[in-house]
């Protein structure tokens, strides 16, 4: 099964109607002359979905329009405040204008009053009939209550003579990064959702395959905390290719929105648990004997492994009662999270049975990009003539390399030079092994450089010939020093005496690399800016403080 990469999340366009946007006329009890004042700030969260497919009637579609008005509904002991207030812009920051309706009277003989915020919406134009909001605070009855800290209503006490500051998280669906600017009342907390898809087969005892119907539960798991249920009993859309059910029964892949890690989990930490349970399907295969649910644990690296190039995504393929079922009968434990009877530390293909290898090329089917055609483990399990990678990591595509299994300089068509120095593939040692990023058996490392943990300056070893990331097999041939100064990243490579480079390839990205960015050094994104005779570089970046860097070379010594 291929594991490809796609960024997912979800756009929803929904019009929201409301009646009056002014203070309601009520027969209020007498109040004190003392007042309490409320200021409301909104924390804007956008969710991503390329398909713009609605999955909730709560959240509107994001737009590029400028926030201009906020509609707020408050209830308190003396009545209800239904207020539309302008949003201002001071050249840098958006903020709500002062509004006297948010001064709340305190009941007689009391110093405080109970207040409940029940509605908060943001508009690009003055609200009216046919005008939809661009941001909305979700309610605790809605599907997205778990994606904010405080869903509406928000209840609090307001004291006479005080100015209450209140943050409200509001959501919309957007299909690109939107630069929104907060003000003294607003804090930006981006929350992105990504697509995760499941497809399943059911097999009878005689081995006949059927498209399966199933139920999916997804839970966000936190160590030492209660699980957060994101989805319960979600099922795929099923049907028949003919109106009279005389054709083929089918099920669409079930795709659901999932978050990236939200509680400071590492990229390698399991944070989602997906439980898939076989369901009956009378018209297709009837009511089979109960099957044990399939349980899948996902880290952020696992989620990204499904994403591919050209806006594609692969699904998790589940097999019930099938001979090629990737999960055996071993129990799922912390030491063997995929239940394939192989401890995690020895797993060749995490999440799948290492013994399932149809083409017998040494790459388990679950991680083999060409599972029915024998290939090279260093080329993703595909035949070398598929031109899908660089088996010897010398920077030349396998179709152009005259010695695809022996590293050599480009000047010698990828072959070692007779009588010359020993030339070997080399990588800077980082905190992330490449084979965890793209389900490939390629050795090497990427470094997820994080200012908070790595500081603004750190030195890493460069290893040559360290197959399977085993440094005891290789030679330490130099170091790479990385320095960060504001928006500049500086790299300085220092080689040991007698070491030279025949090739140098560098990939620098904000997000974790995948696909060819992992197993094809010849396609790294900074190759046009580097050469073997220059060992010091400075680049500017326009993203967050964290970044990924891969340094690959062919070192001769």
TrEMBL record:
Keyword Signal: yes
UniProt source species: Salegentibacter salinarum
Keywords associated with the record: Signal
SUPFAM superfamilies: TSP type-3 repeat (SSF103647)
GO molecular function: calcium ion binding
Protein name from the UniProt record: Uncharacterized protein
Signal peptide residues on this chain, from the entry's feature table: 1-24
């Amino acid at each position: 099964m291929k594991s490809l990469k796609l960024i997912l999340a979800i756009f929803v366009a929904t019009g929201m109607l409301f009646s009056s946007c002014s203070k309601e006329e009520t027969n209020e009890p007498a109040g004190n002359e003392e007042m309490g004042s409320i200021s409301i700030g909104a924390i804007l969260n956008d969710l991503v979905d390329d398909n713009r497919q609605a999955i909730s009637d709560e959240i509107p579609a994001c737009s590029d329009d400028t926030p201009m008005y906020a509609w707020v509904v408050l209830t308190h002991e003396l009545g209800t405040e239904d207020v539309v207030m302008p949003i201002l812009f001071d050249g840098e920051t958006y903020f709500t204008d002062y509004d006297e309706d948010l001064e709340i009277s305190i009941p007689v003989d009391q110093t405080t009053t109970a207040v409940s915020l029940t509605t908060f919406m943001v508009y690009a134009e003055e609200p009216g009939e046919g005008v939809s909001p661009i941001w909305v605070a979700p309610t605790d009855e809605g599907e997205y209550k778990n994606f904010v800290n405080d869903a509406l209503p928000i209840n609090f006490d307001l004291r006479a003579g005080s100015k209450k500051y209140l943050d409200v998280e509001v959501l919309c669906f957007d299909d690109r990064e939107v630069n929104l600017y907060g003000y003294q009342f607003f804090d930006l907390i981006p929350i992105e959702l990504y697509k995760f898809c499941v497809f399943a087969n059911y097999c009878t005892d005689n081995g006949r395959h059927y498209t399966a119907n199933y139920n999916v539960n997804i839970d966000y798991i936190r160590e030492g905390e209660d699980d957060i249920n994101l989805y319960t009993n979600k099922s795929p859309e099923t049907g028949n290719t003919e109106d009279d059910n005389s054709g083929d029964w089918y099920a669409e892949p079930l795709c659901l929105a999932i978050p990236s890690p939200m509680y400071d989990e590492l990229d390698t930490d399991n944070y989602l648990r997906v439980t898939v349970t076989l369901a009956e399907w009378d018209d297709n295969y009837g009511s089979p004997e109960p099957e044990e649910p399939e349980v899948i644990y996902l880290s952020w690296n696992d989620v990204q492994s499904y994403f591919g190039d050209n806006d594609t995504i692969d699904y998790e393929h589940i097999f019930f009662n099938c001979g090629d079922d990737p999960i055996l009968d071993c129990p799922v434990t912390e030491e063997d999270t995929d239940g394939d009877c192989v401890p995690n530390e020895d797993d060749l293909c995490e999440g799948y049975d290492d013994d399932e290898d149809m083409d017998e090329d040494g790459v388990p089917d679950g991680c083999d990009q060409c599972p029915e055609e024998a290939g090279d483990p260093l080329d993703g399990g595909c035949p070398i003539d598929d031109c899908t990678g660089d088996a010897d990591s010398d920077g030349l595509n396998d179709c152009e390399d005259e010695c695809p299994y022996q590293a050599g300089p480009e000047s010698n068509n990828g072959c070692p030079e007779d009588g010359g120095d020993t030339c070997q593939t080399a990588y800077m040692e980082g905190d992330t092994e490449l084979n965890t990023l793209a389900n490939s058996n390629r050795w090497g490392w990427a470094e997820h450089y994080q200012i908070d943990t790595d500081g603004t300056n750190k030195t890493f070893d460069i290893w040559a010939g360290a197959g399977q990331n085993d440094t005891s097999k290789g030679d330490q041939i130099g170091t790479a020093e990385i320095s960060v100064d504001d928006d500049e990243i500086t790299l300085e490579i220092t080689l040991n005496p007698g070491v030279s480079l025949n090739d140098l390839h560098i990939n620098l990205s904000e997000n974790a690399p995948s696909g060819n960015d992992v197993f094809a050094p010849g396609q790294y994104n900074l190759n046009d800016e580097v050469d073997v005779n220059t060992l010091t570089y400075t680049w500017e970046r326009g993203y967050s403080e964290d970044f990924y860097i891969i340094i690959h070379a062919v070192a001769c010594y």
